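Researcher: I'd like a candidate sequence for this fold, 501 residues long. If you have to choose between options at a position, lean toward the conservative one.
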């Protein structure tokens, strides 16, 4: 009897912990449509009335009170039974732009210009934001903040090291899905957007939907009880596949020994112009470049990617082969599109043309034209000086290595991070894996003048997705440097085509 009492009492206690906890979480994570500020944004001369729900905590147990927040913006029209661009309160897609740059912590984006809109703010600061333009298109916009590589708590522990940012973005997605019924917008049509580190995270949300690897982290911060797969991914110049990005960079830039370096892994666009350091690689760096370049073919070959002709994409020991031809074909397609649009390419002797068509392109000359920006290793720096070294630190250690190569060659007594965490930051490790709901639709853009990471990074990501049957659009916009949101009309057209099918 006594035994039975203890047992059932124990069960009651346990079930109270679970149900009380759930009830508490429920009330904390319930979207309250009555608490908003009225705002107006002017888009192409027209005033759009919106409701702004700002700085909502998207987790029940935040470890950070600044960044684990989301701003939700909803056109007023959707509260008045009207439609915009063919969308209604029920059918409007949810545009999900993150503001992450340089793997730094990021606050949620705002509809009214905060200097982060296309082209940045600058004096006058009245440029239209990506968010305002998306609202005018009829989207509900939910912009998540996320912890980043420098985030610390009051005790001085780091709380934003990998995989914190992706965990936060997933929690934000769960919040939107959890509240789908009480919020205008269709949470089965979430389209993530981001640039650079933000593009990497955008890709990672799309590639890792509902994967259980992230579950313990999500539980810890009290993420809403919902799924976190999304409908579509938009990624500009994703700085991703970090554990293979050093070799990809040297495969592309080996032999280009002068460089112009921007200050340490800074975010693209916005802010003050950064002073570039112009210098030549040292003999040691040139040696490291050769070693890294030599490691790339084995990695690419191991992916067993296939080209459109069904043939395996391969590289030989010297780095030549049909994978290189594929990368080159994307550059040629870009040049062709630019030429068709009237861009004069006649000054570029390394592009061969005939009858208005590009007949060939000297890839090595193109790489010299784009110029090297980073020194080898471009990401896992031997002296731990990169943004990514800081990303892969832990609660107590600010900076770590994340490749065996750099750890073995460290110049700073650097230690190797837990490689499982490196995997959790790499979309390549999840595409095609069981237990993952991968986004069906992908739009990846990486400018042909963007040397923050190698072109192979986006090409490998897009090809793997294509090979696994996903819908992928990859283009390398001509002469675009490291940047994003420069073709929003085309991005929105892509979204509308998908959502209005
Ligand atoms: C960004 C740029 C980099 O060169 C890098 O290494 C990481 C992030 C960025 O602009 O977000």
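Model: Candidate sequence:
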């Amino acid at each position: 009897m006594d035994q039975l009492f203890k047992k059932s009492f124990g069960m009651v206690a346990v079930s109270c912990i679970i149900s009380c906890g759930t009830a508490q979480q429920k009330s904390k994570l319930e979207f309250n449509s009555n608490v908003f500020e009225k705002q107006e944004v002017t888009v192409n001369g027209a005033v759009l009335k919106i409701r702004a729900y700002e700085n909502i905590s998207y987790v029940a147990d935040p470890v950070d009170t600044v960044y684990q927040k989301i701003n939700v913006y909803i056109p007023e029209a959707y509260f008045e039974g009207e439609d915009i661009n063919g969308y209604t309160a029920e059918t409007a897609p949810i545009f999900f732009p993150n503001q992450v740059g340089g793997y730094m912590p990021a606050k949620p984006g705002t509809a009214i210009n905060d200097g982060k809109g296309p082209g940045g703010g600058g004096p006058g600061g009245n440029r239209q934001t990506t968010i305002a333009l998306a609202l005018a298109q009829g989207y509900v916009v939910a912009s998540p903040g996320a912890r980043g590589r420098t985030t610390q708590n009051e005790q001085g522990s780091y709380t934003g090291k990998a995989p914190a940012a992706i965990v936060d973005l997933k929690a934000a997605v769960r919040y939107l899905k959890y509240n789908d019924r009480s919020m205008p917008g269709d949470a089965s049509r979430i389209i993530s957007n981001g640039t650079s580190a933000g593009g990497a995270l955008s890709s990672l949300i799309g590639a890792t939907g509902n994967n259980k690897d992230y579950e313990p982290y999500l539980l810890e911060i009290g993420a809403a009880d919902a799924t976190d797969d999304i409908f579509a991914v938009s990624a500009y110049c994703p700085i991703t596949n970090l554990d293979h990005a050093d070799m990809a960079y040297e495969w592309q830039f080996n032999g280009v020994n002068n460089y112009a370096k921007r200050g340490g892994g800074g975010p693209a666009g916005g802010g003050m112009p950064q002073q570039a350091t112009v210098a030549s690689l040292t003999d040691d760096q040139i040696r490291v470049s050769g070693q890294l370049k030599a490691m790339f073919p084995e990695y690419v070959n191991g992916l067993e990617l296939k080209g459109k002709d069904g043939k395996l994409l391969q590289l030989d020991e010297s780095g030549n082969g049909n994978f290189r031809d594929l990368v080159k074909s994307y550059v040629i397609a870009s040049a062709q599109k630019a030429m068709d649009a009237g861009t004069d390419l006649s000054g570029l002797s390394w592009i061969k043309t005939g009858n208005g068509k590009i007949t060939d392109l000297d890839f090595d000359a193109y790489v010299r034209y784009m110029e090297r920006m980073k020194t080898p290793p471009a990401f896992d720096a031997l002296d731990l000086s990169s943004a990514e070294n800081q990303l892969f630190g832990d609660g107590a250690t600010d900076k770590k290595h994340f490749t065996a190569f750099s750890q073995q060659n460290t110049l700073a007594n650097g230690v190797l991070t837990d490689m499982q965490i490196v995997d959790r930051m790499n979309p390549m490790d999840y595409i095609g894996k069981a237990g993952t709901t991968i986004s069906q639709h992908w739009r990846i853009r990486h400018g042909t003048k963007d040397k923050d990471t190698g072109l192979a990074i986006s090409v490998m990501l897009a090809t793997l997705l294509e090979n696994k049957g996903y819908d992928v659009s990859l283009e390398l916009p001509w002469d675009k440097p490291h940047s994003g949101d420069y073709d929003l009309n085309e991005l929105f057209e892509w979204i509308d085509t998908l959502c209005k099918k």
